């Protein structure tokens, strides 16, 4: 070789065993990111679902639905927000103490005159404990302008939804 010629390095072919191992870091980051997104999604659903279905955590919703059942003469709605025992001892029971939708619907329809629901319910306050909730209301029957205060006692049903177990008239 001549002294004035530069030395050129020949490329060396890589063999399979000499390759640099790939890093697992991108896969780890992807898995952690996916797990965080999944956890966030579950948290959002857990927060929004009770709100969307009228939540079991708010007994005032059940009391308002009870009033709506009367306003719309909706026996299914009435039944969904009351206990069986309440339905059997409240109006709507037949001569044998068994709840009957037809009887209840006739009573509920009496609060609507010429297509107008003549009853106003105002929730005054509510308190919940582990196994019961108390809701105080002021209600006005517009048919005779009478005003009543009531205390509703609610209990959670098997699905955790607050349902009315008793209603007692209290002093104004």
Structure description:
This protein has 172 residues and is an alpha+beta fold. The chain has a domain at 59-170: Roll (Nuclear Transport Factor 2, Chain: A). The chain is built from five helices and six strands; from the N terminus they run αααααββββββ. β5 (146-156) and β6 form a beta hairpin. The protein is rod-shaped.
Contiguous helical run count: 5
Output the helix-strand order: HHHHHEEEEEE
Strand order of the largest sheet: 3-4-5-6
Structural class: alpha+beta
The CATH architecture assignment of the domain at 59-170 turns out to be Roll
Mean pLDDT, nearest integer? Answer: 84
Strand percentage: 25-35%
Summarize the topology:
Layout: H1 25-52, H2 59-72, H3 75-80, H4 84-89, H5 101-109, E1 112-113, E2 116-117, E3 119-128, E4 133-141, E5 146-156, E6 162-170
Concise synopsis of the structure shown:
The chain is α+β, with helices and mostly antiparallel strands. It has a domain of 112 residues: Nuclear Transport Factor 2, Chain: A, CATH 3.10.450.50.
Which characteristics define this entry?
172 residues, 6 strands, Nuclear Transport Factor 2, Chain: A, rod-shaped, alpha+beta
């Amino acid at each position: 070789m001549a002294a004035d010629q530069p030395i050129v390095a020949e490329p060396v072919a890589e063999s399979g065993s000499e390759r640099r191992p790939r890093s697992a870091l991108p896969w780890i980051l992807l898995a952690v990111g996916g797990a965080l997104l999944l956890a966030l999604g579950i948290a959002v659903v857990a927060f929004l679902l009770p709100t969307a279905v009228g939540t079991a955590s708010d007994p005032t919703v059940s009391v308002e639905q009870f009033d709506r059942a009367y306003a719309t003469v909706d026996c299914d709605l009435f039944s969904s927000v009351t206990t069986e025992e309440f339905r059997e001892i409240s109006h709507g029971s037949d001569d044998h103490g068994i709840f009957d939708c037809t009887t209840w619907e006739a009573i509920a329809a009496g609060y609507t005159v010429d297509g107008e629901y003549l009853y106003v319910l105002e929730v005054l306050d509510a308190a919940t404990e582990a196994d019961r909730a108390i809701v105080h209301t002021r209600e006005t029957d517009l048919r005779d302008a009478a005003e009543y205060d009531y205390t509703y006692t609610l209990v959670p049903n098997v699905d955790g939804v607050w349902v009315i177990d008793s209603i007692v008239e209290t002093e104004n």
